[in-house]
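Hi Prof. W.,

I finally got the phosphoenolpyruvate--protein phosphotransferase prediction working! I wasn't sure whether to trim anything, so I left the full sequence exactly as given:
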Amino acid sequence: MLELAVEQIAMGQKAADKNQALHLLASHLVADGLVAEGYLDGLRAREAQGSTFLGQGIAIPHGTPQTRELVFSTGVRLMQFPEGVDWGDGQIVYLAIAIAARSDEHLRLLQLLTRALGETDLAEALRRASSAEALLKLLQGAPQALALDAQLVGLNLPAEDFDELAWRGARLLQRAGCVDAGFAAVLQQAEPLPLGEGLWWLHSERQVRQPGLAFITPQQPLRYRDQPLNGLFCLASLGAAHQALLERLCEVLIEGRGQMLYQATSSRAVLEVLGGEVPADWPSTQVMLANPHGLHARPAKELAQLAKGFDGEIRLRVLESAEPAVSAKSLSQLLSLGARRGQTLELIAEPAIAADALPALRAAIEQGLGEDVEPLPHAAPVEAQAPAPVLAAPAAGSSLQGVAAAPGIASGPAHVCVEREIDYPLRGESPAQERQKLRAALEAVHADLDALIKRSDKAIGEIFLTHQEMLGDPALTDDVESRLAQGESAAAAWMAVVDAAARRQEALQDTLLAERAADLRDIGRRVLAQLCGVQQSAEPEQPYVLVMAEVGPSDVARLDPARVAGIVTAHGGATAHSAIVARALGIPAVVGAGESILLLASGTALLLDGQRGRVTIAPPADELQRALAERDAREQRLQAAWAKRHEPAQTRDGHAVEVFANIGDSSSLDKVVEQGAEGVGLLRTELIFMAHSQAPDVATQEAEYRRVLDGLAGRPLVVRTLDVGGDKPLPYWPIAAEENPFLGVRGVRLTLQRPQIMEDQLRALLRAADDRPLRIMFPMVGQVHEWRAAKAMVERLRIEIPVRDLQVGIMVEVPSAALLAGQLAREVDFFSIGTNDLTQYTLAIDRGHPSLSAQADGLHPAVLQLIDMTVRAAHAQGKWVGVCGELAADPQAVALLLGLEVDELSVSARSIPEVKALVRQADLSTARALAREALQQDSAEAVRALVERY
Ligand code: PEP
Ligand code: MG
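And this is what came out:
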């Protein structure tokens, strides 16, 4: 994705003419590895087709479709020309933004720029900017326009009080895309301001995406704080966007015309008074945009010019978006729509010119606005939808196939925990009665928690003690009390206060504190259930099988392994983080068993096979007995494995593989060595970064890495450099929101963009190494130049901080890295295959997807092919290959990975004895035959069936 950053800006450049400027820009793109040499021809060819001058002193030179192959990586480079460069027709450019993009990604950039383009005097400000930061601010900092249109006006809405009216205002803002869902709660905290004439004002800057103003009037007369409540303004405030509106509103009130607002019967009347966007009652026509790269600069310019030929207003909007219509005569506004091929444009014209303008503009759009367009495919008629199948609870004796998430066999009564919506009244009977109800509910929940504390171990008991503490927190109870006094029901008051407190907690920069919001919500729900008489199914006395829709990692972490015999979830996959935690706790788990499991009655007997991913409902006695016998046998095997955990892992025919541990911090190291680890195969350093409230400096990191190396006492340590970004942001490291974070700026892509962070980390690692075996690898490498850039940094630092036993490699978790393993193997010292991500990217299934991730099985033959390719390429160059994804600990995968000739398996510490034992049971020649056959299969199921037969 194209984003603007200071590192991309070169200030104070000089060019005699446009040609020289293009030359400079192209050289910059080449030098930074974004494009190949010939890209300059593309820039020139594009300018020959039409100038890339945008207005306001900005040009956006880019290549042509023919030069796309020369782009290695999407990006932009900006050059400031304070003396100006004539871009043709006397248009002077002070800032040129050279774009390297293979597709129409530059539309995104245009969208970013258009806010700035609307500013007056931008050209002059760009010319004068004295630093890259100032220039960036100019491009990004222009105020957004205040949204105020018909959808933000709600007249005569049913509301019982001020809070309900405010809630309705927040809903309007949310529906218009101005605010996030939490805005309603934020608004509850804001101090209302009386404007006079019964009009009130509320505003907040939190949870705001785009500035907007909603105006709401109540159906029946209301009062608030002993004054009439005739209408309420709710402002989602961002910058100074609302300034003009506020001035206008003051004028209206000073002139005593407030009733024109609260007595209005149409949104149009309100908007006319406030100067908002009045919905045009004008003729319109719709046309689908067919331009291959959407409404980008050239066609938009053509459209604006055509529209300017008509003497009257013409507006345009994209039907599929919530954005308001813009003037068709303004190039910058047209670009701000970001209209893409296949979207429907609506042209709206003033009645006097509509008959001429609409058909002319429509025809011009259909003909491509000066570009060749391919007709759009006709939309297939929408098939009548088959009725959704009615779900029923699985029958006794039946089995459900899910995904094997944590090995082991478990049986016990189901404890089905499904969060159902609980309805509750907003208004209470009387404050005294509601107060009494709440007190009783709080006492009952307190007593429940007492019982939980008594039967939990210390660590888990602590959690429930915290919950008890929260129940009596005066900050909560005081707020609840004042709501009760205003007539709210106990349930409404309690939930509003808990929700607001949880949101405040979630907004904290500190991840650990933010996670406590889950505790607040937990007790919030317990009390609500008690107030509404909703029975929460009691936790069974004997060890049970927990059944949930999905289990978050923190849910699993607080489970008591002594009470929870197994876990079954309806959604989720084997590499979801909850599954990883379940494995670490040693609780057998099956995930992705399907929605029907949630319909089981609590108490139904379940048998769970965490190795085969199977759940049997009310199993027949003989099946249960067989399974329990298998469990006991497994138990014995594990005990035997434990006894031999410190011995090497060697197949029966003498082939040795290394079994290493995956860890996330330095504290668990003793345990890891005690479990038999021969080294650490994956230190996930992002977990170290996440444990700090700000980026740890070199010394802090060095101390942490030193602790790990000390604990390993000469065993090798494989460290992965910081793997954040995408779905794993660091709270103190703001990263722009992305539509597809898994395909976005994450792993090494991100650290290469912030070289200081990477340099600090590498420096700390090299300093900590002394003479001990250190292996450094980079996550998410998908391109050879990424590896080279990262490696170059290590080489540079290595001169300064020599390390005797250092190897540098990459993680293979993007299919392109496996496909280019031949080229990469010549340069790296080793590969470590991250099968979790490799599976997600190969099968195009989000590893945390609620329903699909169940199919993201690392034993899929497509993934195995990539592993095979990687190993062959590495061995041809004498390099070693490890597997550090969850697949390495899957009992059905171990022999197969041996057969693919993987040299090292890195697994969670708990799995080490078992994985070593599995290696000892195998022999290499059989494993090789198994692997060859597996590569020929057509599905993961077929591979698993094959392994069972072997
Ligand atoms: C992987 O992707 O397999 C891996 C080991 O990395 P992570 O699970 O931390 O993304
Ligand atoms: Mg990964």
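Residues 379-389 have pLDDT under 50 and may be disordered. Does that look reasonable to you?

Thanks,
D.
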